[in-house]
C-alpha cells in the first residue's frame, strides 16, 4: 500500500488477497473500492449496470457500504470478501455492489436509515440485501464468515437467503416496499405549529447537564465520541446565559480528550472515538472532519476561557493536518486508517523498551511515568483483555502536577516532554504508516477551511489563513462544474459525483469564515452564488427545508436530515450560514430561507434537542441579539489593526465583522453589501459601527467601546434618526 496515495495494486507489498484477477472496482477512484478490486467477489460499483443485470437474471442485490479507515470493514474484507468460498456463494446468489460511504453519502444515508428501520441499529460495514429496484429487505452490520457468538455467518446466511428468495420472493419484495414507503414518509416534514425559542435551548442544556460525566468529561455511556458541535453549543449557551456549568462541561471534556489516548500524543491529531469512558483506548482511524470540528471547539474554548491548553491543542491539531493530511495543491485528504501491517493501532503503540531505546534510560523512565507507559503494557487485546506489552500514551495528570512531583519548573518539564515527543515522532516515522485515504471531499474540506480561518483570526496566524485560502481555491477550481454547481469528490485529477447539501452548506460556511479572516469580498460573493444554486436545486418547494441530494439525483428517497451525527447536519449548517450571510450582505431572501428552515423542523428539534445541537447554535444566533460590526479604516494602518484585533480577541460568537476600506471611494465590499456604501470614518480614524437588525448605535473610534457595545445584551439599540 502506498501510504501517501491509498491503494496501489502494483505495490511490492501486495497481499495474498490481491492475487485474484481485478474486478470492476479496479476502474474506480475511491481508495476504499480499490481495496476490494482484487477480491474474488464479482463486485460492481453502484450504477445501472449492476441493477440491469439483477433485473435480467432475477437476482437480489448484496450491497456492502464502508469506508477506507474502518477497522471492521477491513476485517470483513479479509475474512470473507477475499475468501474464495464466500465469494463463490455471493457470486452465485447475488449481484454484489460495493459503495464508499464517504464518496456516496447519498446512498449511505438512505440505506443506513433502512437499517435502522429494519433492525433498530446501524453501523459500518453496512450490509443490505435488496431487490433490483433498490428496495431493502435485510440489513446488518459486520457479518462474520462463520457463525459464532450468536451471530449467523455468511456461509450459513447466504444459502438461507437464497432459499427464501426462491420460495418467498414476493414476501421479500413486499417487505422492501414497506421499508421504502416508511423512509419516504419519514422524509416528509411539513411545517408544524409552534415556535422554537429559548426554552428549547434550556432543555438541551439541562439534558447535557444530566448526562454529563463529571469525572471523565463527555456525555452518556461509552463509547465516547468527541461531538464538538455539542461543546460549541454549550460554549455559546454559557456565553448567552452566564450559566457557569455550561463552560465547566466543555472545559472538563476538552481537557480530558487532549490528555487521553484519543489524542495522538506523539504526532498530534484526534482519533475517531474512544471505546471507553476515560478517552483512553481509541479506534485509531483519524478523520479530517474530526480534526476540523475539534479545532473549532478548542479555538472557541480558548477565546471564551483564555486557557492556553486549548489554544495549544488547536495549533497541534492544525499542525497534524498541514503535515500529514494536505495535498500539494492545497486540498485536504479524508482520513488515515486505523490499521497498519494488519493490526489496529500498531503504528501508534509503544513498548516501554522502545521508549527507553529512543530516549535513553533516565529520560525514558521519566517520560514513561508521565505518559502512563508500563512494562506489561496498558493496552489490552480485544477481545479477551490480554495485556500485549504495548502502550497508548496518555496524560493521567496535567503537567503542572508532574512538575510539582519532580520539583522542576513546569516550563522546563514542558520542554523535556516536547523534546521527547519529537524524538519519538522521528522514530515512529520509520514505521510502516497506516494507509491514507487521499480523496478530497468538498464538504469535509469546507469544515477544515472554516476551522483554519477561525483559528487564523483568533491566533493572528497568517499561515492558517493562507492554507484556508489555498484549499478554498482548490475546491472552487477543481470541484465546480462549468455551470457553477459544486461536485463532491476529487482524486487523482478526476472530479465527479453530484454535490450534496453538506457540500454546499459547509462551503458557504467556510467562505463566510474566510471572508472574516481576510476581508476579501469575493468570498462573500461566491458564498451568495453557491446559496442561489443550493436553493434552486435542493430546496423542498412544497414543505421547506433542504433535501440532501439535488432535484436531478437518482436515489430511492430524497431525505431532509436535521439530526447531527459525527458532523453537523446540512440543514442546521445551512440555516446558520444563510442567516449569517443574509445579515452580512443585507439579503433578506437568505434570511427568510433560514427562517423557513427554522420553522419546518420545529417538531423534530423539539422532540430531541440534544440530537440537533448545531441547529440550536444557529437558533441561538437567530434569536439574538446578534450584531453586525462594520469597521471602516485604512487597511494595514495601526488604528485599523487595533480595532480589528480588539473584536477578534474577545469571545463574541453572535457578532459578524465586515470591513470597509476607507481609502477607496467604491470598494468591492459595497457591491456585495450595499449598506456599507455610506460607512465612513470619523476624524480619519478607524471607526466601528455596531448594528443590530440593521439599526446601528453611535459609531465609535474606541476599540474598547466597540467591544462593550457588542457585549451588551437585551433590547436592540434604537435606530439613529
UniProtKB/TrEMBL annotation:
Pfam families: Thioredox_DsbH
Extent of the signal sequence: none
Region (Disordered): 1-21
Superkingdom as given in the UniProt entry: Archaea
Spermatogenesis-associated protein 20-like TRX domain location: 22-184
Protein name: Thioredoxin domain-containing protein
Amino acid at each position: 500500500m502506498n501510504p501517501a496515495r491509498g491503494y496501489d495494486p502494483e505495490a511490492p507489498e501486495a497481499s495474498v488477497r490481491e492475487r485474484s484477477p481485478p474486478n470492476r472496482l479496479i476502474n474506480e477512484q475511491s481508495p476504499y473500492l480499490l481495496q476490494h478490486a482484487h477480491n474474488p467477489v464479482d463486485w460492481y460499483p453502484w450504477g445501472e449496470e449492476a441493477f440491469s443485470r439483477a433485473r435480467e437474471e432475477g437476482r437480489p442485490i448484496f450491497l456492502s457500504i464502508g469506508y477506507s479507515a474502518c477497522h471492521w470493514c477491513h476485517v470483513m474484507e479479509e475474512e470473507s470478501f477475499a475468501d474464495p468460498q464466500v465469494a463463490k456463494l455471493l457470486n452465485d446468489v447475488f449481484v454484489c455492489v460495493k459503495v464508499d460511504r464517504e464518496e456516496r453519502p447519498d446512498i449511505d444515508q438512505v440505506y443506513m436509515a433502512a437499517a435502522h428501520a429494519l433492525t433498530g441499529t446501524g453501523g459500518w460495514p453496512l450490509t443490505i440485501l435488496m431487490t433490483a429496484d433498490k428496495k431493502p429487505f435485510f440489513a446488518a452490520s459486520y457479518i462474520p464468515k462463520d457463525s459464532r457468538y450468536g451471530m449467523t455467518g455468511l456461509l450459513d446466511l447466504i444459502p438461507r437467503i437464497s432459499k427464501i428468495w426462491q420460495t418467498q420472493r414476493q414476501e421479500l419484495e413486499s417487505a422492501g416496499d414497506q421499508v421504502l414507503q416508511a423512509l419516504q414518509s419519514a422524509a416528509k416534514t411539513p411545517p408544524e405549529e409552534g415556535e422554537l425559542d429559548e426554552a428549547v435551548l434550556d432543555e438541551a442544556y439541562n439534558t447535557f447537564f444530566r448526562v454529563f460525566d463529571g469525572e471523565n468529561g463527555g456525555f452518556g455511556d461509552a463509547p465516547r465520541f468527541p461531538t464538538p458541535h455539542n461543546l460549541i453549543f454549550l460554549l455559546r449557551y454559557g456565553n448567552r446565559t452566564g450559566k457557569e456549568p455550561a463552560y465547566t462541561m466543555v472545559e472538563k471534556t476538552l481537557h480530558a480528550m487532549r490528555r487521553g489516548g484519543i489524542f495522538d500524543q506523539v504526532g498530534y491529531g484526534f482519533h475517531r472515538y474512544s471505546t471507553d469512558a476515560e478517552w483512553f483506548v481509541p479506534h485509531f482511524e483519524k478523520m479530517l472532519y474530526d480534526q476540523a470540528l475539534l479545532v473549532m471547539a478548542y479555538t472557541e474554548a480558548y477565546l471564551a476561557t483564555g486557557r492556553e491548553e486549548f489554544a495549544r491543542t488547536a495549533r497541534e491539531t492544525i499542525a497534524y493536518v498541514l503535515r500529514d493530511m494536505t495535498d500539494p495543491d492545497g486540498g485536504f485528504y479524508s482520513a488515515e486508517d486505523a490499521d497498519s501491517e494488519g493490526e489496529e493501532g500498531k503504528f501508534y503503540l509503544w513498548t516501554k523498551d522502545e521508549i527507553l531505546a529512543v530516549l535513553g534510560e533516565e529520560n525514558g523512565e521519566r517520560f514513561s511515568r508521565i505518559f502512563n507507559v508500563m512494562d506489561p503494557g496498558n493496552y489490552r487485546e480485544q477481545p479477551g483483555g490480554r495485556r500485549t506489552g504495548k502502550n497508548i500514551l496518555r496524560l493521567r495528570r496535567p503537567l503542572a502536577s508532574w512538575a510539582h512531583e519532580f520539583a522542576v519548573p513546569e516550563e522546563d518539564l514542558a520542554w523535556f516532554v516536547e523534546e521527547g515527543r519529537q524524538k519519538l515522532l522521528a522514530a515512529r516515522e520509520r514505521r510502516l504508516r497506516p494507509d491514507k485515504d487521499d480523496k478530497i471531499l468538498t464538504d469535509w474540506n469546507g469544515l477544515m477551511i472554516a476551522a483554519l480561518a477561525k483559528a487564523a483570526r483568533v491566533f493572528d496566524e497568517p499561515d492558517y489563513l493562507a492554507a484556508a485560502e489555498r484549499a478554498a481555491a482548490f475546491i472552487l477550481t477543481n470541484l465546480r462544474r462549468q455551470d457553477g454547481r459544486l461536485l463532491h469528490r476529487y482524486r487523482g485529477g478526476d472530479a465527479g459525483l453530484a454535490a450534496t447539501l453538506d457540500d454546499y452548506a459547509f462551503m458557504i460556511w467556510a467562505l463566510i469564515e474566510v471572508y472574516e479572516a481576510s476581508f476579501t469580498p469575493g468570498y462573500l460573493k461566491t458564498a451568495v452564488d453557491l446559496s442561489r444554486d443550493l436553493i434552486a436545486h435542493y430546496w423542498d418547494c412544497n414543505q421547506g427545508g433542504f433535501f440532501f441530494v439535488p432535484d436531478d439525483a437518482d436515489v430511492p428517497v430524497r431525505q431532509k436530515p436535521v439530526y447531527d451525527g459525527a458532523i453537523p447536519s446540512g440543514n442546521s449548517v445551512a440555516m446558520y450560514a444563510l442567516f449569517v450571510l443574509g445579515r452580512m450582505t443585507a439579503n433578506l431572501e437568505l434570511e427568510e430561507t433560514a427562517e423557513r428552515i427554522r420553522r419546518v423542523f420545529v417538531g423534530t428539534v423539539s422532540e430531541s434537542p440534544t440530537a440537533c445541537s448545531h441547529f440550536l447554535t444557529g437558533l441561538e444566533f437567530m434569536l439574538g441579539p446578534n450584531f453586525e460590526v462594520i469597521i471602516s479604516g485604512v487597511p494595514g494602518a495601526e488604528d485599523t489593526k487595533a480595532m480589528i484585533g480588539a473584536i477578534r480577541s474577545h469571545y463574541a460568537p453572535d457578532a459578524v465583522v465586515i470591513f470597509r476600506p476607507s481609502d477607496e471611494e467604491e470598494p468591492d465590499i459595497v457591491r456585495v453589501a450595499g449598506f456599507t456604501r455610506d460607512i465612513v470614518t470619523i476624524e480619519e480614524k478607524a471607526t466601528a459601527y455596531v448594528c443590530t437588525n440593521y439599526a446601528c448605535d453611535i459609531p465609535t473610534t474606541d476599540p474598547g467601546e466597540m467591544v462593550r457595545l457588542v457585549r451588551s445584551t437585551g433590547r436592540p439599540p434604537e435606530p439613529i434618526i
